[in-house]
Specification:
binds fructose -6-phosphate; Rossmann fold; 8 helices; alpha/beta; 3-stranded antiparallel beta sheet; 262 residues
Length: 262
Amino acid sequence: MEIIIKNSPEEASVLAARVIAKLVREKPNAVLGLATGSTPVRLYQELIRMHKEDGLSFREVRCFNLDEYVALPETHEQSYHYFMQQQLFAHIDVQAKNTLVPDGMAKDIPAHCADFEEQIKACGGIDIQVLGIGSDGHIAFNEPSSSFASRTRIKTLTEQTIEDNARFFEGDETQVPTHCITMGIGTIMEAKMNILLAFGEGKAEAIRETCEGPVSAMVPASILQHHQVAKIFLDDGASSKLKLKDYYEWVYKGKPEWQQDQ
Ligand code: F6R
């Protein structure tokens, strides 16, 4: 795990965007795994800026999203389809046929999930997977106790996640869907690189457990300790409970310049 701590979410997001941009420049048909929620918004804004101002093209890039709510139509403002259009896809030159968000309206959910996995494989696997983290340690919607071997499937959200996400549904928990389709932890672990972003003190405990606690299905993100290339981008708040915070900052300061966006 490489833990990168910056003063602000903006600074951390710009750095994470540079890692993605480097890959896309080197491999124009890169395969990206994308997340939704409040955390990656600044990262997407920086990718949009790079597209508009620096000519970064996503024309051949393939995108797979981590998750989607079950029974929320694509047109619903809180669906992850809608989010991706608003926050990224509509502002870059990615082709619609190359963007795949799980279909929460699928009639046959197991068949849809199996097909989703097949499509990732057919593209040669995910090069970089972007992740946020839930305050309960979830990645994608793999809630505590999810199997580390899990694949794309239907999951039930925890009460904690429903409470956390109610802010997107006018604060009304009863409007938050109870089920979702999510990439599995096994799927995420097959990405060649994982980039996890976490901002704010509300994520500090989950980040402490993820980076410095035991690897446990009770903290799904902690499996990233076993991933070969996992980069954790944090701001001051999210890093505030790390025991070795000074060490991580020291390591980053000593990083040779050529390694900065790798
Ligand atoms: C969303 C996703 C979730 C979120 C997590 C944090 O695609 O995979 O795991 O990343 O719930 O959400 P925010 O960023 O809103 O705090």
